């Protein structure tokens, strides 16, 4: 059984072909491509930034939160819909600082990983 945190970033070790959940199109997850563990309960998914999702094994356990992964997802998602880099640059804030602010905010809400540590 694999155990993940919501938002945890996973990397594919080998190229993986799968059928997309929406529209049934074939998707190739390239070696090294990242996906993020979703919060869904049944079925459980890993999410790609392009909107594709891959169903995880039934015995996968999801517990706790990866504030680093969630912050990365939020940053990448917002960067795709607004000029986020330009906005934060105008405040003299780095990309990493911005993601750390998100991480801190999530921890303030009590979002910890399944071991109680920041992941």
Task: Compile the SSE list and pairings.
Layout: E1 3-6, E2 9-11, E3 16-19, E4 26-29, E5 34-37, E6 45-47, E7 53-55, E8 61-65, H1 67-81, H2 84-90, H3 95-108
Parallel strand pairs: 1-8
Antiparallel strand pairs: 2-5, 3-4, 5-6, 6-7
Helix pairs in contact: 1-3
The radius of gyration is 15 Å
Strand content: 25-35%
What structural category do the secondary elements indicate?
alpha+beta
Number of strands: 8
DSSP helical segment count = 3
Instruction: List segments where confidence is low: pLDDT < 50 over at least 5 consecutive residues.
Output: none
Mean pLDDT: 88
| Major sheet characteristics | 4 strands, antiparallel
**Looking at the structure, what is the overall shape?**
globular
Helix and strand sequence: EEEEEEEEHHH
Lateral arrangement of strands in the main beta sheet: 2-5-6-7
The overall number of domains is 2
Q: Tell me roughly what share of residues is in helical segments.
A: 25-40%
C-alpha termini separation: 19 Å
Can you describe what's shown?
This protein has 119 residues and is α+β, with helices and mostly antiparallel strands. It folds into two domains: 3-63; 66-108, no CATH class. The chain is 30% helix and 25% strand. It is built from three helices and eight strands. The protein has helices spanning 67-81, 84-90, 95-108, and strands at residues 3-6, 9-11, 16-19, 26-29, 34-37, 45-47, 53-55, 61-65. The strands form three sheets. A four-stranded antiparallel β-sheet has the order 2-5-6-7. Strands 1-8 form a two-stranded parallel ribbon. Helix 1 packs across helix 3 (95-108). The chain is globular and about 40 Å long. It starts with a strand and ends in an 11-residue tail after the last helix. The mean pLDDT is 88.
């Amino acid at each position: 059984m694999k155990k993940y945190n919501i938002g945890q970033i996973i990397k594919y070790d080998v190229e993986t072909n799968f059928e997309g959940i929406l529209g049934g199109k074939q998707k190739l997850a390239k070696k090294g491509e990242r996906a993020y563990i979703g919060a869904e309960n049944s079925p459980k998914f890993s999410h790609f930034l392009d909107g594709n999702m891959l169903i995880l094994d039934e015995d996968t356990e999801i517990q706790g939160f990866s504030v680093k992964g969630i912050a990365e997802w939020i940053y990448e998602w917002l960067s795709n819909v607004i000029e986020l880099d330009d906005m934060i640059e105008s405040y003299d804030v780095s990309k990493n600082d911005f993601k750390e602010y998100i991480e801190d905010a999530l921890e303030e809400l009590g979002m910890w990983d399944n071991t109680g540590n920041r992941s």
